Amino acid sequence: MSFLYLSKLLPLFFYPLGLASVSLVFALITLWKRPKTAAIAIVLSLTLLLVCSNGWTAKNLVRSLEWQNLPLEEVPTADAIVVLGGATKSATWPRIAPDLSESGDRVIYAAQLYRQEKAPIIVLSGGRIEWRGSGFAESADMANILTSLGIPAKAIIQESESLNTYQNAVNVKKILDAGNLKKVLLVTSAMHTPRAKKIFQRLGIDVIPAPTDFLISKTELEELTSTPKAAILNSLPDANNLNQFTTALKEYIGSFVYSLRGWI
């Protein structure tokens, strides 16, 4: 649990908003006695936020991850569809039922693949970190949504102990081995797919990436240079761009840390 806690908190100091905030606090502390040092810290913060929140930087960083595993023209059949957590919000007041989060395409895509008879079983993997919200495990929330979409409960297997991607893979492998399931369609967000795929493959699981939740499309990249106005507007700070940049950076940091631990 200590590694999990640190893995969620320490990277905040490497993300643009967190790092800029730390730099601004440093500037505030040194402002009166060391104004030149404070000015440098302020310039660093401003530069960091301007660079990381413009469309050019954010969209291309996201693309570098998402386009590593593009959707197949024809998705092959497999023994199971594995869906990783991170796609739901708990049914806590005022929600009357679990909601899909920004990554909720994972659940919808899994239902579509099942309807297309790509696999007879859906394995849902994801617990819930106690200090990041309350409610049922993510696997239970995803199962709730899938059954509401008409997916039979008997076709769903829940794995509710995983708190990170490595644990997803380890716990899912136990389920696959117990059921003699060999080949899986791995459903997760496109940006998360490269890291998740490597972890599953490292454990000897035959994985077919089935990415969804693409944030960047070919059209959106073309819009960066479609007109002079578009080029200028995409250079301006934008909170959504900053969020996308941070999410992509999180994946790169996650891959680096996981490689150090020998997980990928």
Largest sheet: 5 strands, parallel
Q: Which sequence of SSEs, written as H and E, runs from N to C?
A: HHHHEEEHEHEHEHEHHH
What general form does the structure show? globular
- Please tell me how large the radius of gyration is: 21 Å
Q: What is the count of helical runs?
A: 11
Please identify the structural class as seen in this structure: alpha/beta
Note the quaternary state here.
single chain
Unreliable stretches covering 5 or more consecutive residues: none
Walk me through what this model shows.
The chain has 264 residues and is of the alpha/beta class. Helices cover 50% and strands 10% of the residues. It has eleven helices and seven strands. The chain has helices spanning 2-9, 16-30, 35-52, 55-66, 105-115, 138-148, 165-178, 193-202, 218-223, 228-233, 239-260; strands at 80-84, 88-89, 99-100, 122-125, 156-159, 183-187, 206-209. The strands form two sheets. The chain has a five-stranded parallel beta sheet with strand order 5-4-1-6-7, with helices on both faces. Strands 2-3 form a two-stranded antiparallel sheet. β4, α6 and β5 form a beta-alpha-beta unit. α2 packs antiparallel against α3 (35-52), α4 (55-66) crosses α11 and α7 crosses α8 (193-202).
